[in-house]
Amino acid sequence: MKSSYQLTDRAALLTISGDSGAAHPEVAVIPMETVAKNVAFAPQFAALANVFPVLADQIAAANERLQPNARAEDLRGVVSRTVGKPYQAAQAAVISEASAAKASKSVAMAYRSGDPVFFPMIVAKFAAMPAAQRAAFAERASVEQTSALVAAGRDFFDGVDDNIWQLVERRHIIQAHIRMTGLQADYQLQPNAASPAASGPDVPGVEKAAAEALKRHEARGEVVAAAESSLRSIVAAVALATDLSHDAAFDLLTGKAA
């Protein structure tokens, strides 16, 4: 068995190769985006990355002095002692961040505006539109219109393409964010040479700001996905090093091993 540690500008990598030539090497990865300073779980993933070179050295040492069966048993103890707590801390932090991100989206999706009496008419109008018109409608819809559509729910619109429905949801979240945060108060038209009497809300400005907020939220979800993929890669690498199934390796890392 061989192990190596490498730090690049994109990730920290721990590569483990099995004894058999048929054994596919496993690479545990800590992507750099998971340790960025603005990421909620950066400290936990930085601590986990610091364990990689230690584990690589422990694997190399065990490989030199022990036969495969004894080595696997020895490395189970090493993993439990050195990787277990950092892994559990990182896992808990990712779960917390994922839950917070989902809750934030749920709050926006639950927002409703407008008279529910008119919702069925809006829903019927959208359902009857040719597919080519639905995207344009979704991109410019008012929060009252998107409220009607999301209240009906995705399942109601079987004939609507998933991409179109995503436009509906994005538009609703953007408009709901504006209403819930009072963002529009910060974006008012200012008089200028071309429009000396300009006044009222700067609709394009506030919608741009809300769209940027949504992009930040989506980026948050992408980092969560990268972190979860990283946790899976560690399970696979540990499974190979300790001669365990992935499920058993996960139990070892999370302190649930018998």
Keywords:
single chain, 258 residues, mainly alpha, 9 helices, 3 strands, elongated
Write up this protein.
By secondary structure, the chain is mostly helical. It is 64% helix and 7% strand. The chain contains nine helices and three strands; from the N terminus they run βββααααααααα. The chain has helices at residues 42-65, 68-82, 84-110, 119-128, 131-140, 143-152, 162-181, 203-242, 246-253, and strands at residues 2-7, 11-17, 26-31. Strands 1-2-3 form a three-stranded antiparallel beta sheet. Strand 1 and strand 2 form a beta hairpin. Helix 1 (42-65) runs antiparallel to helix 2 (68-82), helix 5 (131-140) runs parallel beside helix 7 (162-181) and helix 6 packs across helix 7 (162-181). The mean pLDDT is 92.
Decide which structural class fits the backbone.
mainly alpha
In total, how many beta strands? Answer: 3
Helix proportion: 55-70%
* Beta-strand content estimate: 5-15%
- Read across the widest sheet, the strand sequence of neighbours is 1-2-3
Order of helices and strands: EEEHHHHHHHHH
* Distance separating the two termini: 25 Å
Low-confidence stretches: none
Distinct helical segment count: 9
Short structural description:
This protein is mainly α. The chain has 9 helices and 3 strands.
Q: What is the strand and helix layout of this fold?
A:
Blueprint: E1 2-7, E2 11-17, E3 26-31, H1 42-65, H2 68-82, H3 84-110, H4 119-128, H5 131-140, H6 143-152, H7 162-181, H8 203-242, H9 246-253
Helix pairs in contact: 1-2, 1-3, 3-8, 4-6, 5-7, 6-7, 7-8, 8-9
